Each structure stands twice: as structure tokens, then as C-alpha cells.
Amino acid sequence: MTADLVVVGAGVVGAACAYFASLAGLRVVVVERGALAGGTSSAGEGNLLVSDKEEGPELDLALYSQRIWREDLGPHAGLWEFESKGGLVVAASDEGLASLRELSVHQRRCGVEVRDVARDELRDHEPHLSPGLAGGAFYPQDAQVQPMLVVAHLLRLAREAGARVRTRTEVTGFLRDGDRVTGVRTTGGDIPAGAVLNAAGTWAGGVADLARVHVPVLPRRGFILVTEPLPARTIRHKVYAAEYVGDVASSDAALQTSPVVEGTGAGTILIGSSRERVGFDRTVSAKAVGTLAAKAIALFPMLREVRAMRTYLGFRPYCPDHLPVIGPDPRAPGLWHACGHEGAGIGLSAGTGRLIAQALAGDEPDLDLTPFAPDRFPVAEEALR
Amino acid sequence: MPDTYDVAVVGAGPAGLAAAVESAAAGLGVVLIDAAGQPGGQYWRHYDENHARPDDRRGHHGLRTFTRLRERLDVLIGAGRIRYLPGHQVWLITRGEGGEFTLRLTPTTSPATDGTDGLSRAETARALILCPGGYDRQLPVPGWDLPGVMAAGGAQALLKGHRTLAGRRAVVAGTGPFLLPVATGLARAGAGVAAVVEANGTLGWLRDPVGTMSVPGKGVEALQYAALMARHRVPYRRGTVIREILGEGRVEAVRIARVDRADGRLAGPEEEIAADLVALGWGFTPSLELPLMLGAQTRRDVDGSLVVVVDDLQRSTVGGVYVAGEATGVGGAALAVAEGRLSAVALAVALRRAPESSREAVTAVIRRLRGEIRRGRRFAAAMHRAYPVPVAWTRWLTGSTLVCRCEEVSYGDLVRACRDLGAQDARTLKMLARPGMGWCQGRVCGFATAEIAACLNRRETTAEDLRPLSTRSLAVPVTLGELAALADDAPGG
Ligand SMILES: Cc1cc2nc3c(=O)[nH]c(=O)nc-3n(C[C@H](O)[C@H](O)[C@H](O)COP(=O)(O)OP(=O)(O)OC[C@H]3O[C@@H](n4cnc5c(N)ncnc54)[C@H](O)[C@@H]3O)c2cc1C
Ligand SMILES: Cc1cc2nc3c(=O)[nH]c(=O)nc-3n(C[C@H](O)[C@H](O)[C@H](O)COP(=O)(O)OP(=O)(O)OC[C@H]3O[C@@H](n4cnc5c(N)ncnc54)[C@H](O)[C@@H]3O)c2cc1C
């Protein structure tokens, strides 16, 4: 078996890259050590958010991805339950509202649609919101998908375009010709390839190590609560507190919880998510789960009597500067990366896949990939690993 | 009672009762927590004690063992040596820095009737003996979502606990000897039992020399049931399954067919039997949420159930966590009692509470219990082999048969997720098609979903298929208000 491109990892990022590369005519083999979407892509939520991003390269990628989701992938939107429901960010205090307004000024300049929502208009958007809030902002572009269906259908479409998907096959090393990467070694045999894409998510640092290059991706744990089903449209949008934006961008290792509350097609309410750096610890944290519940109740008092059916957790793949790693690795020609999307990998996958396919085909990518360069990390930061 | 107990026993069925009584007798500080309002578990799930009738006793084998355990329990509770918390479900267990276990409890009854404040509470203990038992295993069949269809144990519970007659013309179907007490119970309560539909052969374990020899009492029990069946003229249909449950708005009849034991093929002629109650039971599914929550290793047992791996002292692979009863393998009440006892004795020895003077006696007790457990296991294995879930049972399903009733996921949905989307295992199937994602969190459809995932991928079911559908991060749903309380009292995380 040979390939133009081997994609390591069948998460949402690997699936999107495989899909766009296959459409571009490359012969693609996806190699996944577990099951499809068995990593972080089945352990988070499916928000496609622009509202939580400050001005900068990540917001550019988010806006670009918005376009890909709606245009390139638009015809398939129904397959993965794409829903453009909009996000409502609420502030509890006047100071919080002031910084929210300031953020939105910058966001508008970058092309984000934002509507200011006054204190007394909040309950028109969300009837069950707590009465004491100061005001908010509505982001009509915020949308959601069902991430596992995204992965499964993108891979199905990629297969229809000629790609092959090998699950339960682990990449254990690289084929080299000098510095050049010329394929992968796997538990199912060697696969020579023109290019190899590291889309191993939170484990991408380990895959990079196999090629003797450093990519500092680390796990940032998050819990999510799932409630019993409630009547449709009890909670209509994604609703979250303004502090969330600060938490997302923070590098603090300690527990941060700012709930995003949203309804799903199945009627359950998802309450996500905490952020803390505790390695790959899978034990349930009473504190994280409790704090999430408490803060969700603060937003929606009616949730106090609603029952949670379960919690789950995942490990966001994050880099020290909170930007993903996207593009060719000059230290090992033939090796590419698409990883480290932290808490936004579902949303950013569409744009990432499209850009990677353009670059692989030798075209000028629609977005400048320099901010996402794999060798951008200062050596000192790498030593922190 | 101290703030931290030596041991928390979860479940007051045969295993848990024995474990609690034996632990306390050895001098350990014990808290016994059980979801039910009265001790006994599913075996001795009895009538309201305050309104007992003489004939209630007839439904309870091993009642003498139970009565003795009950008496000892009462004495130990009275002496302040067991703290007994009925009507409380453990929904979360976490572990502190010092290795102690914190159990979060939620009341199962309304605060008005149980005298507590109706709020969550926490208990801590140095060790755990988990005896959560199990419940009826279900297999989907066309029409099983009609009102009037229930789990065999559910019908039994109604009879035993509430003396409610669930229907007037019943069909009891599935496999295994536990169909017999359900059928005779219904008959004695005055229901017409139109048939017992048994997928496998006759009372198979009677002919299994190893099995019967190892637990002599069982043979006698089976003969008693056979006699009762005859007295009530209950037809016993062997090698037969229900292939469809019929009715408009509720059960009106079942359609049965013969099944080939070797290849699972259905053979005619089909036959319709009128019924207004269908009780289904395909063996038992152990409740594993608590052991799995703690990270205990599990394996697939002879009957296809996921069970906890324990050593010959009932220790799970997690330090300080003992498991006894159905959760270590379905095997009946006597075995559960022996395992409960052994776990308590072993724990007392581990905590050095077994008196030095009687070390020899303790060793002898352990040896005796181990022997009993070995024989019980052998009998159980023989029984599981005599009453397997028929091979290729998934062939009876049609595209529109619901597999997950909570989320209304049909067999056709599962086929599409496997064929078109590439689901190769139960976890992926659950992610893509949502079986087990609803209110019961896979308790009812978990076994079936695991088998379907394996079958559609043309391989044997594995423990990996069963695990994701047996794991529950919250052992029972609790309100967000109860969860929120964790934020304050959780030590560190
Ligand atoms: C609690 C939580 C909430 C979140 N909410 C959102 C949200 O609302 N919106 C959003 O956009 N994002 C969200 N995210 C983030 C998002 O889930 C991730 O960014 C995204 O799933 C990453 O996708 P991936 O494809 O890079 O990684 P993964 O999905 O983890 O895929 C990587 C794959 O690589 C495989 N792999 C690893 N090593 C090897 C090897 N050696 N050989 C072969 N295969 C290998 C793994 O098995 C894995 O399947 C959330 C994350 C969490 C934890
Ligand atoms: C209809 C029927 C007939 C049977 N007939 C026979 C027979 O004739 N002979 C025989 O040997 N066996 C028979 N059995 C099987 C027998 O009932 C079981 O083998 C036995 O009850 C197992 O004992 P256990 O202690 O393991 O579990 P159980 O009896 O199931 O007790 C477990 C207890 O734990 C509680 N619990 C579970 N989880 C939690 C939690 N999270 N928090 C608090 N409490 C919890 C449950 O509510 C329950 O009270 C029959 C079973 C049924 C249903």
C-alpha cells in the first residue's frame, strides 16, 4: 500500500484534512490507532464559535472555517445536524458588560456579527435566564454540529473519493530518507507516502517525537454535564457568561469553570465545560463538576431541579500560545501537522482541512499559515515540556 | 459511630447483608447503604413486612438464611455497630488524598415519607464492599415497547412487593430457570399463565451432573417449581421464542416460533397465543457502575455479561475495594451470601481486626467459604451453558424494531451506523446512533447493543463492547442542585 498522503488520526481534524485532500485528487490513507472519533472529537461539544475569540489569527481561522462550513460543506450540513442557532453571551455585572462591549467592537472590525442585547431584552432571547444579569451580546454566526457524525460522514465521503481508512492501526514510527519523511511504520505494516500529516490531537506531541521534532501539545481537561431531556426550545441558543472568553485564553493550570449552556436536538441540555491542566487524569472531579452545575444554575435558576444523567470528560490539545499547529514542518520535510486546536478543534477543523489541502497541492492557501508554523515555539518553551 | 467508617457496604441483597453482618461481627465499623426500603435485594425483595401474609413465604427459598441474617442485622443495628441507610442510592464515589472513599447518597423516597431532609449526603469509609447485584437482561423483539410488556423481575417485584397482579393472561418468555418462579408466582396470584416460552432445552441443569452435584439444593428447588407448574397447568414450551409481540396500543398476543439451538434460525409453524402481560427475562445483567467508576477491571463471563474481576478473597483490582454477589458473576443467592461473607472476613484480616487467638478458625472459615464459592461458580457456569442467549438472536429483529426505547433507536439505525458510517464497536455505535444515551443510560439496551455491534461486524462480543454501555459517570441521575453542592464540600478536587 502506498499513498500520496497518510493522515495520522481519525479525529475531526484528520477527517476534514482527509476529505479535502481526497477531493483535491490525492490518494489518502487515514491511520487511526483506536476507533474513528475515538479521541477528543467524541469527548467535547460541537460548538462552532466566533463569539469567544479575540482579534487575531484564531479568529481569522474561525471566520474562514465558518465560510467553509456554510459554503463548501453546506450541502452536507444536514448529515451532521448543523444548526445555526446563535450564541448569547451574558454579563453579570456592569464592568463585565463594559468589557464585553469593548470585545465586540474589535470583533466587528474583523467581520464578526454582534448585536448588543440590553438588560431588559435578555429574556426575549432566553425566557429562563436569571433576572439579575446586566446585559449581553448576541452572535448570530455561532452554530453547532454533532462532531462524531462530522467525523463519520467526512470519512465516508473521503472513502467515496478514494481514501482508505485503517482503524485499530497505530503509527509507531516514520520511514525516513535522510531528514525526509517518506511514510509511516504502523502496527499493520509500513505505508510509504509522499507526505504524512500529524493529526493526532492531544497525542500529536508523541507522534512528532517519533519523527524527532518537538511540537508542544499538552492536555487541558474539561468536564461536561448532560441533563435529562427537556421540552424543545427550553434553552434556545448557546448561552455563556462573559468571563468565559478570559478563561479560554488563560494559561492558568488551576481549575476554571465558565459554563456554556445549550440545548441539543435530543432535548438534553449540555453544560460545558471546565478547564484545568492535570495531565490525563480520568477520575471524576467533584469540584469541577459541582462548580459547573453551580454556575449553570446561576445563569438558569430553573436548572436546579433538573437532573443530570451523566458527565463526561475530554482532553483538549493545547499549545502554550493557544494557537493550533498547521502546515509543513521544515525540520522534517514531508511531515505536516494539523493539531493543537485546543477547545475549538471541531469549529476550526473545516478551515484547517481546506487550507492543508491547498498547501499540499502546492497552491497558495487562502489564509497565511505563518502564525501556525510548527517551528514557531521558542526553545525555552519547548524545554518546559 | 466514627466520621469515617471502616467499611461501607453498598447493597443489602444477599451479598450485602452477609457482608455487613460479618464485618460488624468482626468488629468493623459498618455503614450499609441500600436503594431499597427494606433489606433483601432482588431475591428477598419481599412484601411489606408490616403486612405479611402466611403464604408470602412460599415465594422465598432460603428464607431461613435470610431470617437469620435479618435477625443479626437488627441486633447489630440496635447495638450501634451497623449504621443502616435504606432508601439511599450511591450516585458517586470519589477517593481522597488519604485513600479514603467518599460516597455521595441521594434518597430514593420522597423526604416527606422517609423523615430525612431529602438532600444528598456523604459518607466516608476506609474500604468498600460493593454488592450492587443486577437486574433482568432484556433482548429487543418486535413489539416489546408495547404497554403490557415488562421484565420478568419487574413482574415478580410487583407481585412480591406490592401484591399487584400485573395482568390476567400472561406469557413468560426468555431463558433460564428464573422464568419458573416468575411463572408460578403469577399463577399462584391468580393470573392465567398461557405459557412459559423457553428458548433452550428442558430444565437443563438437572441433567448436568457436575452442576447439580455441586449444589444439591438446586435440584430440589427445580423439582418444586416443575411440580407447581404442573399443578397450575402452565404449558412449558421448549426451544421456542417470541418472535413478535402483537397488539394495538397494548399487548394482545404473542407470536412464537421454534428456534434452532445450533444456528439460531427460526422454524415454523408459527403460533399465536393471546396474552395481556408479557414478562421477558434473558438472564441477568450485573450493575457495574460503581466498580467501573472506581476503575475496577472487568471481564466477560460465561453468560456474556460484563462482571468484575475479583481474586479468591473477593478483592477487585482497585485497592480497598471488595466486590461480592451478582456483580462478580451471576450465580444465585446462596453464592452471593458466601461471597459477601468471604469479603468481610478477608477485609477484617486485612485491617488486622480478626482476633489473633482465632487465626486458625478464620483460616478454616476462609477455606470453607472458598470451597462453597467454587462449587457455586461451577453450578452457575453449568447453568449459563444450559441457558445461553440463542446465537444469532439479532436475526429476529426487523429494521423498525426499537433497540433503545429511551432514544427510539431502531435496529435499522444501528445497521446504517455500522454499514455506512463504519462503526466497528459498541462505543462508536453509541456515539453515532445514540443507543444507551437516554434516561436509562444503557441499562436496558446495553447488552443488546454490544451484541449487535459485534454481530454486524461479524465477530464475537467482547468486554470492550460491553464496557462503554455499562459505565455510568453518575450511578443514578441527580439534580444539578445536588451536584452544585459538591462545589463547596469537595476537598481540593
Ligand atoms: C470538554 C471539551 C469541550 C469541547 N468543546 C468544543 C466545542 O464546543 N467546539 C469545538 O470546536 N471544540 C471543542 N472541543 C475541542 C475539540 O474537541 C478538539 O479540539 C478536537 O476534537 C480535536 O480534534 P483532533 O482531530 O485534533 O483530535 P482527536 O479527536 O483526539 O483525534 C486524534 C486521533 O489521533 C489518534 N492517534 C493518536 N496517536 C496515534 C498514533 N500514534 N497512531 C494512530 N493514531 C493516533 C487518536 O486515537 C485520536 O483518535 C472541546 C474539547 C473538550 C475536551
Ligand atoms: C425473579 C427472580 C427469581 C430468582 N430466583 C432465584 C432462585 O430461585 N434461586 C436463587 O439462588 N436465585 C434466584 N434469583 C437470583 C437472586 O435474586 C440473586 O442471585 C441475588 O439476589 C443476588 O444477590 P446480590 O446481593 O448480589 O444482589 P441483589 O439481590 O440484586 O441486591 C443488590 C442491592 O443493591 C442495591 N443497589 C444497587 N446499586 C446501588 C447503589 N448505587 N446504591 C445503593 N444501593 C444499590 C439494590 O437496590 C439491591 O437492593 C432470582 C432473581 C429473580 C429476579
From TrEMBL, chain A:
<dbReference type="GO" id="GO:0016491">
    <property type="term" value="F:oxidoreductase activity"/>
</dbReference>
<keyword id="KW-0472">Membrane</keyword>
<dbReference type="GO" id="GO:0005737">
    <property type="term" value="C:cytoplasm"/>
</dbReference>
<feature type="transmembrane region" description="Helical">
    <location>
        <begin position="6"/>
        <end position="26"/>
    </location>
</feature>
<dbReference type="InterPro" id="IPR006076">
    <property type="entry name" value="FAD-dep_OxRdtase"/>
</dbReference>
<keyword id="KW-0812">Transmembrane</keyword>
<keyword id="KW-0560">Oxidoreductase</keyword>
<dbReference type="Pfam" id="PF01266">
    <property type="entry name" value="DAO"/>
</dbReference>
<keyword id="KW-1133">Transmembrane helix</keyword>
<protein>
    <submittedName>
        <fullName>FAD-dependent oxidoreductase</fullName>
    </submittedName>
</protein>
<dbReference type="InterPro" id="IPR036188">
    <property type="entry name" value="FAD/NAD-bd_sf"/>
</dbReference>
<feature type="domain" description="FAD dependent oxidoreductase">
    <location>
        <begin position="4"/>
        <end position="358"/>
    </location>
</feature>
UniProtKB/TrEMBL annotation, chain B:
<dbReference type="InterPro" id="IPR017224">
    <property type="entry name" value="Opine_Oxase_asu/HCN_bsu"/>
</dbReference>
<protein>
    <submittedName>
        <fullName>FAD/NAD(P)-binding oxidoreductase</fullName>
    </submittedName>
</protein>
<dbReference type="InterPro" id="IPR051691">
    <property type="entry name" value="Metab_Enz_Cyan_OpOx_G3PDH"/>
</dbReference>
<dbReference type="InterPro" id="IPR041854">
    <property type="entry name" value="BFD-like_2Fe2S-bd_dom_sf"/>
</dbReference>
<dbReference type="GO" id="GO:0016491">
    <property type="term" value="F:oxidoreductase activity"/>
</dbReference>
<dbReference type="InterPro" id="IPR023753">
    <property type="entry name" value="FAD/NAD-binding_dom"/>
</dbReference>
<dbReference type="InterPro" id="IPR036188">
    <property type="entry name" value="FAD/NAD-bd_sf"/>
</dbReference>
<feature type="domain" description="FAD/NAD(P)-binding">
    <location>
        <begin position="5"/>
        <end position="339"/>
    </location>
</feature>
<keyword id="KW-0560">Oxidoreductase</keyword>
<dbReference type="Pfam" id="PF07992">
    <property type="entry name" value="Pyr_redox_2"/>
</dbReference>
